[in-house]
Write a structure and sequence with these properties.
There is one protein chain. 34% of the residues lie in helices and 25% in strands. β1, α1 and β2 form a beta-alpha-beta unit. The protein is elongated and about 60 Å long. The relative contact order is 0.16.
Length: 262
């Protein structure tokens, strides 16, 4: 049985990870970590997640020695868990988005010694969408305008979403575009579309779990690829699958494409 630690355990995703891990016969939750000011330190992780008692208290530091760690926290909390996993040689799954260039550099450094799986979105459907978006963009070429639209709940901190930027990255990789100079975030005023640009737009709406669409259009027709998540369990299940896959893998950066064999 794989022993699991969750960082960011009291957040929306952390609670669903706790709930689904408790129902997985191949996983044992041994640590549920969150910041000291979360107000839930010492409470049972299962109860916090709305499930049966798990026998694991919410804690502010990782004292256990799990087989793998999943991080679904917030940007400032990522570097400390990367450093800890590096020092203790723990495989790490990162689902937190909105990371900085400094964060990514630290993850690169850690991945020289430990296996790290980082993905902007853990769902099977979205990772297929990444591949399809790049393929369609390459086939259609610059005669087709490209717009990426994403929607999430009102509490989401980063914009655009990591998934939206994952779609943009897939398109840029497939077409040779530059993810900085060829990408336009929103529009206002007298700002007509530039040929070849990729438009990105973020919506924040109520309790929206996650919705992404890539629109390809030219004069006369439009193609749209889209994905809608109806529950966070979609992402949690993918993260748990990734964690089980990562145990025993060599040091380096891994992705959901590796997990799914895409």
């Amino acid at each position: 049985m794989i022993q699991l630690a969750i960082n960011g355990a009291t957040g929306r995703m952390g609670r669903r990870l706790i709930a689904l891990a408790g129902a997985d016969a191949g996983l044992e939750l041994v640590a549920a970590v969150d910041h000291a000011g979360c107000g839930l330190i010492g409470q049972d992780a299962g109860r916090v997640a709305g499930e049966d008692e798990a026998g694991v208290p919410i804690c502010a530091t990782l004292d256990a020695q799990p087989d793998v760690v999943i991080d679904f926290s917030v940007q400032p909390a990522v570097l400390p868990v990367v450093k800890l996993c590096h020092e203790r040689t723990l495989p790490l799954v990162i689902g937190t988005t909105g990371l900085t260039a400094e964060d990514q550099a630290s993850i690169d450094a850690a991945a020289k010694s430990i296996p790290v799986l980082q993905a902007p979105n853990m769902s099977l459907g979205v990772n297929l969408l990444f591949a399809l978006a790049g393929q369609v963009a390459k086939q259609l070429g610059d005669d087709y305008d490209i717009e990426v639209v994403e929607a999430h709940h009102r509490f989401k901190q980063d914009a655009p979403s990591g998934t939206a930027m994952g779609l943009v990255e897939s398109i840029c990789t497939a077409t040779g575009k530059d993810i900085v100079s060829d990408v336009k975030h929103g529009r206002s005023g007298m700002d007509p579309r530039t040929p070849g640009e990729i438009g990105v737009h973020a919506l924040r709406l109520g309790d929206e779990v996650g919705r992404h669409a890539v629109c390809f259009a030219t004069l006369g027709e439009e193609i749209q690829l889209s994905h809608k998540a109806n529950t966070r369990d979609t992402f949690a299940a993918g993260a748990l699958r990734a964690a089980k896959w990562l145990v025993g893998k060599p040091a380096g950066r891994h992705t959901m494409k590796d997990v799914l064999g895409l």
